[in-house]
Each structure stands twice: as structure tokens, then as C-alpha cells.
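Input (structure):
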């Protein structure tokens, strides 16, 4: 099931948020929408590519511990897909070990933030990654 949180008019960017915890998903989505982003929240990655095609996000915020398919697998699948491998992925996870961070970054994530994340830090990372992607001409 998907949750569309805002219209796509007058938006600073489209963000796909994959987070299984409802409260975390709602908090992050609401804050980013307040900051004028359009957010699509998913509780899992089962319909990832269908949602990528429909929503066409400019950035993915991704939890690692998800039901059915974990975030590592999703990063790997996105990286192998011609149309989506350029998409910046920012991991937002409770997994705080360096090994977890190295694994996600080695698979293709651009950033790794450990929960609980400061919401203003998250917004800054989102802005930086969207700006970086646009400057590279891949958005």
C-alpha cells in the first residue's frame, strides 16, 4: 500500500520514502512535506519498481530492516537497473555498526544516517543530494 502525501505542484523535489514503521514514516514524510517536498511513503519495497515508474522520485530514503526484502537487497536491485541506478539513495537506519554502513555504501547508497536522525540534518542531506544530482544533470 502506498501513501501519497502531497500534490506535485510547487515542490522542491520528489522523495520516495521506504520505512516500515508507521510513526517514523509519518514523521519524516510530514516534515519533508512541510519543507515543500513531495513524498511517497511505502511500508516495504515489494512494489519498488512499479512505484519508481509511477512516482519518478528524485531521491530515495530507505530503511535497511524491512519486511520481505531488506534495504541492502533494494539498493542492489536499484543499482542493477539501467533507468534507476543514478538515483541517490540515503539510508536512514537503526543499524549503527560501521559494517552495516560500509555495506550499504559499497552497494551504492550515497549517505547513511543512523536513527534517531535529527530531522534538520535529514533535510540538509536531502537538499545536498538533490542539488548534487541536478548539478550532474541526472535528475
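Output (sequence):
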Amino acid at each position: 500500500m502506498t501513501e501519497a502525501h502531497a500534490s506535485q505542484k510547487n515542490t522542491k523535489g520528489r522523495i520516495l520514502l521506504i520505512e516500515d514503521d508507521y510513526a517514523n514514516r509519518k514523521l519524516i514524510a510530514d516534515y519533508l512535506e512541510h519543507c515543500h517536498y513531495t513524498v511517497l511513503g511505502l511500508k516495504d519495497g515489494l512494489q519498488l519498481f512499479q512505484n519508481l515508474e509511477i512516482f519518478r522520485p528524485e531521491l530515495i530514503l530507505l530503511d535497511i530492516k524491512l519486511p520481505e526484502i531488506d534495504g541492502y537487497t533494494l539498493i542492489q536491485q536499484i543499482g542493477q537497473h539501467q533507468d534507476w541506478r543514478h538515483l541517490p539513495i540515503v539510508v536512514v537506519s537503526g543499524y549503527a555498526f560501521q559494517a552495516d554502513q560500509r555495506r550499504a555504501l559499497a552497494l551504492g547508497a550515497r549517505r547513511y544516517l543512523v536513527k534517531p536522525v535529527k530531522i534538520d540534518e535529514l533535510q540538509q542531506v536531502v537538499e545536498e543530494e538533490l542539488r548534487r544530482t541536478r548539478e550532474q544533470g541526472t535528475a
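Notes: DSSP finds five helices and six strands in the chain. The helical segments are 22-34, 48-55, 71-79, 98-107, 119-136.
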